[in-house]
Design brief:
Layout: E1 5-7, H1 19-30, E2 34-37, E3 64-66, E4 73-74, H2 80-104, E5 113-120, E6 152-159, E7 167-172, H3 175-182, H4 191-199, H5 209-223, H6 225-230, E8 233-238, E9 243-247, E10 253-257, E11 261-268, H7 280-288
Parallel strand pairs: 1-2
Antiparallel strand pairs: 2-9, 3-4, 3-5, 5-11, 6-9, 6-11, 7-8, 7-10
Helix pairs in contact: 3-7
This protein binds succinic acid (SIN) and fe (iii) ion.
Length: 293
């Protein structure tokens, strides 16, 4: 399998990026690759080092996060002052990630919608509850309560581990190969069920057929032990002090270990892509021969 990881020499959140590199970044990202910045670390200030402990988590959520444009920290256990200080760090990361994306991917700049920004202080190995929540299994991201209707999920990750420990990922086969394998096994979409789940408040909006398929592809990948073991894949230890970006609804990924990560999620309409046909929506619609949203 050709490596989906592509290195970029950008070393600053304020860097300016040449047009040729911008082109390459968009091409790789839309093709299902991972943009990797080996020397782009995120600096914590002296008084922020204390947040590098797993005791700040409220124990219910594995991440501490800011939701979209909200200011109040979720998943956090600590004083009001500590919450404000950690929120400031997370907001600084959100601003850095946004600045980098606007420079690296100017074609998306007007269309990117920021979603959650998270700090992940809990060791990633061995924290799984159910198989469905187990991110040590290869998967593409899809969230049961949050239908996207095809909106892309773009994520910027930065390993801030102070002891030099890598974030251990596995990266799987191309999305079309995975979809070809699992699509025939998925349960049919039931529009009445999607309506009922929305009316009952189980989903934030009505699940489209696309959301139904993406959710069941996520589950089918994670539930298949042979697939997890035997499918084409590669190990990628993202070093402390490195950053990487991918469409996590397209790139098959799993996290096997590591601690202390910053992560920014953004949404992008399919229409903003250079080639919407290479998105999960475009790929699934082509395979099934019908519109899915
Ligand atoms: C995931 O998106 O599955 C987890 C990524 C990570 O926490 O490294
Ligand atoms: Fe994921």
């Amino acid at each position: 399998m050709q490596s989906p990881i592509a290195e970029f020499p950008v070393c600053s959140w304020q860097a300016s990026v040449e047009p040729a590199l911008q082109e390459r970044a968009q091409e790789i990202l839309e093709g299902g690759g991972v943009l990797y910045f080996p020397r782009l670390g995120f600096e914590l200030q002296e008084e922020e080092q204390r947040f590098l402990a797993d005791t700040w988590s409220d124990g219910k959520s594995k991440n501490i996060y800011l939701r979209g444009r909200e200011r109040n920290l979720r998943g956090f256990a600590g004083s009001e002052d500590d919450a404000l200080a950690l929120a400031a760090l997370i907001e600084r990361y959100a601003a850095g990630a946004r600045r980098l994306l606007d420079e690296l991917l100017p074609a998306y700049a007007g269309s990117l919608e920021p979603s959650n920004t998270s700090f992940r202080p809990v060791e990633a190995a061995g924290r799984a509850q159910s198989w469905r929540h187990d991110d040590t299994r290869l998967h593409t991201d899809a969230f049961p309560s949050k239908p996207t209707h095809g909106l892309r999920i773009l994520r910027v990750f930065c390993n801030v581990n102070p002891a030099g420990r890598p974030r251990q990922w596995r990266v799987g086969e191309p999305f079309p190969d995975m979809a070809r394998r699992f699509l025939p096994r998925l349960p049919p979409y039931r529009p009445w069920l999607a309506t009922a789940m929305h009316k009952l408040g189980i989903t934030k909006r009505r699940r489209s057929e696309y959301d139904h398929l993406m959710l069941h592809l996520h589950d089918a990948q994670k539930a298949d032990a042979d697939y997890q073991k035997d499918a084409p894949q590669g190990n990628m230890p993202f070093p402390a002090g490195s950053t990487w970006i991918c469409f996590s609804d397209q790139v098959l990924h799993a996290v096997m270990g590591g601690q202390y990560l910053l992560e920014q999620t953004l949404h992008l309409p399919v229409a903003a892509l250079r080639d919407p046909g290479r998105s999960p929506l475009g790929i699934l619609e082509k395979m099934l021969g019908r519109t899915l949203v």
